[in-house]
Design goal:
The complex is a heterodimer of chains A (about 260) and B (about 325). Chain A is mostly helical and about 260 residues long. Chain A has a single domain, classed as Fumarate Reductase Cytochrome B subunit (Up-down Bundle). Chain A is about 65% helix and about 5% strand. Chain A has nine helices and three strands, in the order ββααααααβααα. In chain A, strands 1-2-3 form a three-stranded antiparallel beta sheet. Chain A is elongated. Chain B is of the alpha+beta class and about 325 residues long. Chain B folds into two domains: about 280 residues, Alpha-Beta Plaits, CATH 3.30.70.20; about 40 residues, no CATH class. Chain B is built from nine helices and eleven strands. Chain B has a five-stranded mixed beta sheet, covered by helices on one side. In chain B, strand 5 and strand 6 form a beta hairpin. In chain B, helix 1 runs antiparallel to helix 7. The chains are: A mainly alpha (about 260), B alpha+beta (about 325). The interface between A and B is large, with 55 and 60 residues.
Chain lengths: ~260, ~325
């Protein structure tokens, strides 16, 4: 169990090392993919980007493409790992729940001083919705990108319709990915969300923040910790009574009897 | 990569090569994994092209211009300026130019006076798109406006092209030519993005679909240009080269093309004799730069399987630890 309250440190473990790795592998490779994807448009020279220090390569489409491929190996492998790994383990914390849309609207209203936030689970309802949206966008980017790569590597004469479909799908979802990335950045700038930022760097958030804003999550952790403790208690080994024990007991009885007699 | 001098192949080895080509196509490249190219290919036999003496414009060039010049639209007036920088390319007032590639001229014939092994040659060389087997111009087009068709032609879709000229940048011969002020970019932000449409030879794609011959070849009075099934045409080109103790260009250049020049003179000598510059393709060796990315492309194709395998292995490892009561921290 990764999630754990560290009372002495005043922290709660929110993400495992593996989850942090998954997030940052997708984030960093995703940023490289956005940049090199933009450089696949003929804009670097036109907009003087290639004249910026260290960006001379941006006007070379084949270098950009190689970097794009390199980043996509990480992006695709970790994306698939994430879905399969957490799917098998049954991790459902980020899957949208019924009522998330309405709740998200209410939460967004609170950012503008209207109403009060409801108590949250580990993730906010809009985080669950954003995760689902991002997962769909990344999934479509992966499938369409793989189709394009297949054409480039194996079948340059792939049907024109399929090529146009893969390319334009990739382009449209590329734009959506940029919007989703900007939305993600805006979300962490919002003051109420800022305490969560340290969680994605260190895996831990402040306990007082979590108790205040994510009481349902803290309750789940405490319940889980209590259940684990109970299970451990129940599983404490009961010593079996062996023949030897019986003999010892009989000996003790025999030695006790005279004492009793003496005392009497 | 040097030019292929076919004469060094003996008659016997040539027959072996031809048989191999016929049976196994062009073989499996060691690095690239592209399927065997399909469709048509063409021969341009420099021993047969005479430049159409007595005609102001060679027959092939005239036929192409007659059919296709009117299909290239005239630009809007004025053509939008480009911000922050970029060069407008307007050939609409120079449609008469036929001695180089332009958006309104997809083929031209260049004359070269050369000497080889003490013999002088006057060569007339039709130049147009080579229709590469795995063309970088199509691979890198961000809008899929350029495509290698199943019949072998590499065709630009002028409804999708916005004239960014990436195709010309990555083409070893800089074949596609831009006409600014035309095409779909005009409907968006023409001063900020796009710059017209790229035009080039499309091997009379529509005629090929109807089993007809491209007009340049149909018009050629000497039969210097022919088209046919790729394997047969390649075998024919190799046979012609063996017969004249000559040379082939286009078989291996840029990873292989669908155009095979046959010449009695090495192409590096021809290259020195022809003009160079915009719209004037060279005859130098042409490396396929996209081949450098083949290993990475293979890794990209493998990456989903790597991710799935790692995900399954990791999850079951945790599940087994949980089952055995050893925790299973994620």
């Amino acid at each position: 169990m990764t999630e754990r309250i560290l009372e002495d440190k005043g922290l709660v473990i929110r993400h495992s090392v593996l989850e942090l790795f998954e997030h940052w592998a997708i984030a960093l490779s995703g940023i490289i993919l956005i940049l090199t994807g933009i450089f696949e448009m003929p804009i670097a020279r036109r907009y003087y980007i290639n004249e910026l220090p260290g960006l001379a390569w941006s006007a070379d489409f084949i270098i950009s493409m190689k970097i794009h491929y390199l980043a996509s190996v990480v992006f695709v492998a970790v994306g698939l790992f994430h879905i399969i790994h957490h799917g098998i383990l049954g991790d459902r914390g980020m899957i949208p729940r019924k009522g998330d849309v309405r709740q998200s609207i209410d939460v967004i209203k609170t950012f503008f001083g209207k109403g009060e936030e409801p108590p949250f689970h580990k993730y906010l309802p809009e985080q669950r919705l954003a995760y689902a949206a991002m997962a769909v966008i990344i999934g479509v980017l992966i499938v369409s990108g793989l189709m394009k790569t297949y054409k480039n590597l194996i079948d340059p004469q792939m049907s024109e319709g399929l090529t146009i479909l893969a390319t334009w799908t990739h382009n449209i979802f590329f734009v959506l990915f940029i919007f989703a990335f900007i939305g993600h950045m805006v979300a962490i700038i919002l003051k109420p969300n800022r305490p969560m930022v340290r969680g994605i760097f260190t895996g831990r958030v402040r306990l007082d923040y979590a108790k205040h804003r994510h009481p349902l999550w803290i309750a789940e952790i405490m319940e889980s910790q209590a259940a684990v403790a109970e299970a451990i208690k129940e599983e404490e080994p009961v010593e079996e009574i062996t023949q030897e024990d019986t003999e010892i007991a009989e000996d003790m009885e025999q030695t006790e009897d005279p004492e009793e007699e003496e005392s009497q | 990569m040097g030019f292929e001098q076919v004469p060094k192949i003996t008659r016997r080895s040539f027959l072996q090569v031809s048989a191999g080509l016929t049976v196994a196509g062009l073989g499996i490249p060691r690095v690239a994994h592209a399927r065997q190219p399909r469709g048509m290919a063409s021969i341009i036999d420099l021993t047969l092209c005479d430049g159409c003496p007595g005609k102001e414009i060679p027959a092939c060039v005239a036929a192409c211009r007659n059919l296709y010049q009117k299909t290239v639209p005239d630009p809007v007036d004025p053509i939008p300026k480009l911000l922050p920088r970029g060069k407008i390319e307007d050939w609409s007032k120079k449609k008469h130019v036929y001695d180089r590639l332009t958006p309104y001229n997809f083929i031209f014939v260049e004359k070269a006076e050369v000497e080889y092994q003490g013999k002088k040659y006057t060569l007339h060389i039709p130049r147009r798109c080579m229709h590469c087997d795995n063309p970088a111009c199509a691979t890198i087009c961000p809008f899929a406006a350029n495509h290698k068709m199943k019949n072998g032609a590499v065709v630009i879709n002028d409804n999708l092209c916005v004239g960014g000229a990436k195709c010309r940048t990555v083409c070893p011969w800089a074949i596609p030519q831009r006409q600014s002020g035309v095409g779909p970019y005009l409907y968006f932000a023409p001063t900020l993005a796009g710059n017209g449409v790229m035009f080039k030879c499309h091997l009379c794609y529509d005629l090929l679909r109807e089993d007809k011959t491209p007009v340049c070849m149909e018009a050629c009075p000497t039969g210097a240009m022919i088209i046919g099934e790729r394997d047969e045409i390649l075998a024919d080109a190799l046979g012609r080269a063996v017969h004249i103790n000559g040379f082939i260009y286009g078989k291996d250049e840029n990873g292989g093309t669908s155009t095979f020049y046959v010449s009695p003179v090495p192409f590096d000598i021809i290259d020195k004799a022809i003009s160079h510059g915009a719209g004037l393709p060279h005859f130098k060796p042409a490396k396929r730069r996209m081949a450098e990315a083949s290993a990475l492309e293979t890794w990209v194709m493998a990456s989903p399987f790597i991710g799935i395998a790692a995900g399954v292995a990791g999850a079951f490892s945790i599940l087994s630890k949980r089952k055995s009561g050893k925790g299973g921290n994620e």
